[in-house]
Amino acid sequence: MLLRAGLPQLRRRAVALPLSFAPRRLSSEPPGAEWTDTVDYLDETGEVLSSAPGARPAVPGAEPTILSGSSAHPLPRPAAAARLAALALRLRSGPSLSAALSALPSPPDPSLLLLAATSLPASDPTPLLSLVAWSRHQPWFVPSDDLSSLVAARLQPATHSSDLLSLFDDALAHPDPATFPKTLNAVVSALATHGLLEPAFYCFKRLRDAGFRGLETPTYNALLSVLLTRGLAFKAFEVLDEMSVSGCALDKGTYELAVPALARAGRIDASRKLFDEMRQRDGVGRASPGVYSVMVDVLAKSGRLDAAMGMYREMVAVGHRVSTSVSTAMVEGLVRAGKLDAGMELWEEMRRGGLRPSFGLYTMVVEANARSGRLDVAAKLFGDMEKSGFFPTPATYACLVEMHASAGQVDIAMRMYHSMANAGTRPGLSTFTALLTMLANKRLLDLAAKVLLEMKASGFPIEVTASDLLMIYIKDGSTELALRWLRFMGSAGIRTNNFIIRQLFESCMKMGLYDSARPLLETYVGAAAKVDMILYTSILAHLVRCQDEGSEWAIMDILSVSRHKAHDFMCGLFTGPEQRKKPVLSFVREFFQGIDYDNEESAARYFVNVLLNYLVLMGQMNRARCVWKVAYENKLFPKAIVFDQHIAWSLDIRNLSVGAALVSTVHTLHRFRKRMLYYGVVPRRIKLVTGPTLKMVVAQVLASLESPFEVSKVVLRAPGDSVLEWFKKPIVQQFLLNEIPSKSDVLMHKLNVMFPSSAPEVRSLNLPRSLGMPR
């Protein structure tokens, strides 16, 4: 008969420890057991079945405390654990739970506590925490890694982070933290998995500083994942290095995290090394498409196209489907590296594979083909792009317009420009500039004016662009178009700068448009611009070359408009001594003393060359000799005349104009004549260094006087004695004292040579003072 023990009627002598009821018969009793009272066993009706002395603590599962019929059995440990779990679930927490647990007939042990904790539901950690908290204050409690790791696994970091950190502190404070590897791993992994970066990394640093080497691969992976998610790649690499130092093995998850992170951080060599290690390790398997995608993308963008292409082919070979992003990265890398043909081959391969290009890839391919001059391909791709539903960006429109404009394809460029405007896309400054430059080069002035006004309506400043177009017309020699464009600019209220006005003025002078040049110079002077000596000399050079009387008057009028001090000098030079009130030589010296030779030396040299040309053409030889003399005195031509004692005298006229060369030759030979006849100094030879350009001009003039100078490649030379005899001839004396002889004088000289009796006797070879110093 199965008996059930009823409620015992106990007469206790003292309230003490939890009690177990003694059975009616005990086959054996634990040694040292002390009975404290008498227990009556009742049946269901309340009658006393038997009595037995004593009540004492009993260990569940070890001592027989339950009767089954006439047999005594121990209380099963699962039942005792279930009783603990039931109390924790029913009372949950607080003093009531602590009292109930303390009143148990027998105290639990650590293994029974672990068994009860395991049976508690994982969804509600409160009973478990209360049960563990109570047990921590019991004398029989011994901390264990299994119980702590179980508690850590049951706690939600979002709401129980402080409890997790308490578990971590307790485990780390243990004399031997290495005996709690599961707990420490569980805490760090739970914090990292739920995104609690700061406490997770704090725990990791404490473990590293404590020399703990028991972290496992999943824990490291959780730390790497949260750090990379937050963008802290450098901290993730610290964790990875610690993982290598601790000897923890990398699994597939670690490789999947570390390889892309290293690649994105620019540590491409390290990522490739880790990638190769992953491929060679057994049990890891092939890399995921994401890893391949990142490697291809990073290698392509870093310019390692061969490695990127090899990775791309390997990705296809292992059976991964190539994504649009990977193909885009490869095409972009090839195109940007200038390998457009290879990029277009991959583009076609991608299209055949059924991949739809992205908007960015379409844009890049269109622009790349346009910039490389493949305008037909670019136009076709542009059409495909529109058919695919992509709306071209302003940059794409601008690229096509600019490239067609650069190629001079006016119709296509204007059609693309109007399409751009109709699509509501505002052209940029570079687009307007390219389009206007094309129209200017094609001399489509009216169309360029229309586009320029549209550019102004778009809010762009147009003064600089309009001036640039004016310079295009000027440099192209289209002076008439330049004048028309300038008139358009004036009507539109667009101003240009003085530099361009000067350039256009010089172009008009070159083309002989003097009526248009005069108002340009007036505008230039009226804008407070200074006419320098170079500009004035260039106008004078046009006067020298002019052969039409009407044009000469127009150029003289332009010279007067310049208001340059050189013009006053020119006017004074051609007036008489009464108006000048000083000799020519003094007048010339006064003008040249007012020149700033530090800044205008080359301009003054240019002015002297042109002025001497003009004076020679006007027959003003004496004035020309005065100008040359003063110019030489002011060292504008410092190395022109060289006296090498009795050896050689020379005149270097290679860098002079024709008029300056003739004047300097006459003046210098006159100086040589004075030295030889008056002072008796005769050199071995005399040289005239003319260069190839002026050689024939000077040689012809001297040949008409039967000079002893012999013509070589770039020099006219003669012995000093021969030149002395030549200086004694009357025609030479006239040539050197006055001016270049006329044809009739040369003819008379030849007759006198042929018929000496008719030649007048030359009384004196002395230089007449009235001719030697013109007034």
Features:
775 residues; mainly alpha; Ribosomal Protein S8, Chain: A, domain 1; five-stranded mixed sheet; two-stranded antiparallel ribbon; 6% strand; disordered N terminus; disordered C terminus
Task: Indicate the topology.
Elements: E1 20-21, E2 38-42, E3 48-53, E4 55-56, E5 64-68, E6 71-74, H1 77-91, H2 95-102, H3 110-119, H4 126-135, H5 145-154, H6 157-173, H7 181-193, H8 197-209, H9 217-229, H10 233-245, H11 252-264, H12 268-280, H13 289-301, H14 305-317, H15 324-336, H16 340-352, H17 359-371, H18 375-387, H19 394-406, H20 410-422, H21 429-441, H22 445-457, H23 463-475, H24 479-491, H25 498-511, H26 514-526, H27 533-545, H28 549-562, H29 565-573, H30 577-580, H31 584-593, H32 597-617, H33 621-633, E7 641-644, E8 648-652, H34 658-678, E9 685-689, H35 691-703, E10 710-711, E11 715-719, H36 720-727, H37 730-737, H38 743-754, H39 769-772
Parallel strand pairs: 8-9
Antiparallel strand pairs: 1-4, 2-3, 5-6, 7-8, 9-11, 10-11
Helix pairs in contact: 1-2, 1-3, 1-4, 3-5, 5-7, 6-7, 7-8, 7-9, 9-10, 9-11, 11-12, 11-13, 13-14, 13-15, 14-15, 15-16, 15-17, 17-18, 17-19, 19-20, 19-21, 21-22, 21-23, 23-24, 23-25, 25-26, 26-28, 27-28, 27-32, 29-31, 31-33, 32-33, 32-34, 33-34
